[in-house]
Amino acid sequence: MQNVKAKKHLGQHFLKDESIAAQIADSVLMQGYNQVLEVGPGMGVLTKYLLQKEGIVLTAAEIDTESVEYLMQHADKFLGLKVIQGDVLKMPLSVISTEGLAIVGNFPYNISSQILFMAYENRGQVKEVTGMFQKEVAKRIASPPGSREYGILSVFLQAFYTIEYLFTVDEWVFQPPPKVKSGVIRLVRNNVETLPCDEKAFYRLVKMAFNQRRKMLGNAIRPLLTSPLPDWPELTKRAEQLSVEQFVSLTNKIEALRSKSVAQ
After folding, report:
1. Domains 8-189 and 199-263 fall in the same CATH topology
2. How confident is the model over 36-75, as pLDDT tens digits?
């Protein structure tokens, strides 16, 4: 079992059930790329299973000095592993690889959403994200339109990734045990390079829609519309009812309406 000293400032809970680590490693697809970045390896429980994957080129980013020292002192257990000490959120991914890569980990709860935003912002390079999140976050990312969990990050990520909720992990497999269950999800890059709309307008629309998600869209995004409201079916729905494609369509309608208004 790994050193399970709690590092509360990292929001990290360490796995003591190695079968879960093996399952996560088995879930990493590595389709057409072999560069993998493990975030927060701790004492290497997941790392050693990742290193068993054929052809893998594994880099581990770890902010904690004790963990880095442990990995370096036990380099014979982690042959082929490259360790970088530092905050992964402040590292340009080009430091790790200039090619396509997968991001993998038992992600610290307090930075898990930021890791997803990092993947989103580097979607040209990040081909896959597979790992463990707080169950609530994992469900939110993987939820389809129409569910309560579906939100801003769901839309942004589902626009560019195919997302699967793989399995739930109970609290007792960690030390210290968290107060919530965890969920393992996998995001795999789809074929969308750019959205068929003004992407800045798309982001603005999605954020505005979900900031007042209890309201019908006609009211939630009224600042973007003319008066009287257009007779569009989307405006009678709530934000969580619209798919990525419907948000794209609505973006294009709004931009056409704005252009027409300017022209007049």
Report:
1. no
2. 999 999 999 999 999 999 999 999 999 999 999 999 999 9
> What is residue 37's three-state secondary structure?
strand
State how far the Cα of 47 lies from the Cα of 102, in Å rounded to an integer: 14
Which long-range CB contacts under 8 A does 217-226 form with residues at least 24 apart? Answer: 217/242, 217/250, 221/254, 224/254, 224/258, 225/254, 225/257, 226/257, 226/261
DSSP symbols for 131-183: EEEEHHHHHHHHPPTTSSS--HHHHHHHTTEEEEEEEEE-GGGEESPPSS-EE
> What end-to-end distance do the CA atoms of the chain give, in Å?
70
Domain ranges of the chain: 8-189, 199-263
- The CATH superfamily holding the domain 199-263 is rRNA adenine dimethylase, C-terminal domain (1.10.8.100)
Q: What is the pTM of this model?
A: 0.91
Fold for 8-189, please state it: Rossmann fold (3.40.50)
Distances (CA, A) of 69 to 41, 59, 73, 187, 259: 12, 15, 6, 31, 59
Q: What is the DSSP letter of 243?
A: -
Output b/e per residue, 33-65; b: 16+ Cβ within 10 A: bbbbbbbbbbbbbbbbbbbeeeebbbbbbbbbe
Cβ pair 198, 180 in contact under 8 A = no
DSSP 3-state assignment of 205? helix
